[in-house]
Design a protein that fits this description.
Elements lengths: L6 E4 L4 E5 L14 E3 L3 H10 L2 E5 L4 H14 L14 E9 L3 H8 L5 H10 L21 H10 L3 E3 L1 H13 L4 E5 L7 H14 L1 H4 L6 H13 L3
Parallel strand pairs: 3-4, 4-5, 5-6, 5-7
Antiparallel strand pairs: 1-2
Helix pairs in contact: 1-2
Length: about 230
């Protein structure tokens, strides 16, 4: 649909007559392709298709280690559906970074994110559920301070000082995760707190990990453009 002006499809579940699907991607080659995944079979399928994986972090790095390994062990066999292999595993998580680590952990116990997290498991009913997740409409309770501390020990809680957050991020890097999307996602946090934690994280944590002057996805696209003879 993105690469031709006369696309058609005849399949078991739907058919589409010849059409020019608009708008087309602006860049050439087209942007990197991704798929949302939470099950082993989808991680393997994504790798075989040569597309990146987006996954919620509903647990510790060790809980997702096996899924990352499936992807990384299969990506070399990719037959890309796009114009290049987007070898990326991206995890979506939460973080709260303050100079006062204890204060950050206390705030995280009252982020009011239980409703959002409960809906994830309610509507994504094929998503693997960690132990203890209640059935909808019962909501997942906000974490206790003890749970935050245990989560930090496993790498599941990216909460605390810049050093604490960097220690947690290292656990994700160690299991092979390429990228993390994260932020202070509590729905009751004041703007001042959000601005402060994002700036502190950007100033003191990101530089410890972001040392490649060229992002991996940018490199994949550049190399594909050189191969295809386009700018």
């Amino acid at each position: 649909m993105w690469s031709t002006t006369d696309y058609r499809f005849d399949g078991e579940y739907f058919s589409m007559p010849p059409r020019n699907v608009l708008p087309k991607p602006y860049t050439d080659p087209h942007p990197p392709l991704w798929i949302a995944a939470g099950n082993p079979s989808t991680f393997e399928k994504a790798a075989r298709m040569g597309v990146g994986v987006l996954c919620f972090a509903m647990g510790s790095p060790d809980m997702l280690k096996g899924l990352v390994e499936i992807y990384k062990n299969t990506i070399d066999q990719a037959e890309p559906v796009g114009e290049y292999v987007n070898n990326n595993v991206m995890i979506t998580s939460q973080m709260l970074c303050l100079n006062d680590g204890q204060k950050a952990r206390e705030i995280s116990c009252d982020m009011n994110g239980s409703y959002q997290n409960s809906l994830v498991f309610h509507y994504l009913d094929t998503f693997p559920k960690p132990p203890g997740i209640p059935e909808w409409p019962e909501e997942i309770p906000d974490p206790t301070l003890d749970q935050i501390d245990k989560g930090f020990a496993s790498g599941a809680s990216i909460v605390g000082t810049p050093d604490d957050c960097a220690e947690a991020l290292q656990k994700w890097e160690d299991v092979g995760v390429d990228q993390l999307i994260m932020g202070p996602s509590g729905s009751v946090f004041p703007h001042e707190l959000l601005a402060r934690t994002v700036k502190l994280f950007g100033d003191e944590v990101i530089p410890r990990f972001d040392k490649d002057p060229e992002h991996s996805t940018s490199r994949y696209r550049r190399e594909a453009a050189e191969r295809l003879g386009v700018k």
